[in-house]
Amino acid sequence: MKILFIPFALISFTFFAQNLKTEDITYNYVKLPTSPLNPKPESYSSYVTASYEEENKKILAQHEADKAQAEADFQRETAEYPNKVKAADEKYEREMAAWNEKGLASKIIEKQVLNENNKPVKDYVPQPYRKTISMPLMKTNYDYNALASAHLKIDGYAKTTNNALVYTVSLQGFDYTQPQIKTEVKKEATVANGVSTTRDVTYYHIEFTYRHPMTARVSNGNNQELFFVSPEAFIEYKTYKSTASKTAPSSDYSVLIKTMEDKILKENLTTINLLVNDRIGYAVTSRTSSLDFVKSKNESHNDIMEAYNNANAGLKSLIANETLAIQKLDAAVATYNAALSESNLFDKKARIDKDITVAIYFNLLECYFALRNTTAGDEIISKLATIDLSNRDKKLKEAYRELFLDLTNRKAANGL
Prior knowledge:
It is built from eleven helices and eleven strands.
């Protein structure tokens, strides 16, 4: 009996030997808007405009006028030049004739006694030249249609030109302070032949402040404003600081400024578009999360692995095939809930012990989020609150609490 008992004890101890694994997963889902339009238009058109275009036109018109005036002045001075040269020659000839008539004694007295040299000098007549009119500093013009096409998209609507919904972003122009080269002296140690020497080393970097303000307006076909946003973050100046170098940088900042302008333009347009979609769009949103599964030495947790596979497939097909995704997620939820009927938080040898129970709860939360089942999700969060969780799991639970609170508010706003 003893011989038979030992193997049985070993079997009972190892039967549920398990290894809990976590896999990261990234999938897309449709985020509900916080302020949906009702009734919902079917389409929209988007535009980018610039509030500084009129000022640019005035500056350019003045530039053209200055160029025209400079050309007119050059042509007039060119035409007048021969007469001015002739008049200077004639004046010089008259003055020389008068000077030559003076006696030698008078000339000596003027030069040596009175310290005067009254010998005539021909007037200098400058050669006419075209005045260079430099191009004035203006705000950048863009291909506004291309910007709108690339960056202004409202998910859940068809993009047309019938103006059912008009989405316009107005640029106010890239604004920046004059870049400056800043220096910083650091002490650096070098070792040569076992001797350490400290010396002062100068580092250089370029620094300036910048901003790229813009606003967004969404209106209906009757030009009634539905949504307007002017992000304060776009109005505040930010500081650019280049990487420090031991070599002094070039003082030609044109490429740096243009690069920063294009970069901030795209970043701000992306931010604007996220704000608009969060408010009224049905944004296809990327979410990175994780799912747990059990890697067993036997087949004791095949159901958990099957549920994991269904959950994984369901999440990844949410956008491509919503019907299939719901079927997969529902199957995973059913399997997870069936397994939880065996949950035993106080027996480490249980098939569904505390660690697996907690893992299943978090997997269920991800499935319920994708299914927009906030009621079931809140119940899981309440159950997790009764379990002594690790610090990591406590933070994860709070993250899901915030996620489901946001989803609850969005569902309410959408009448779901």
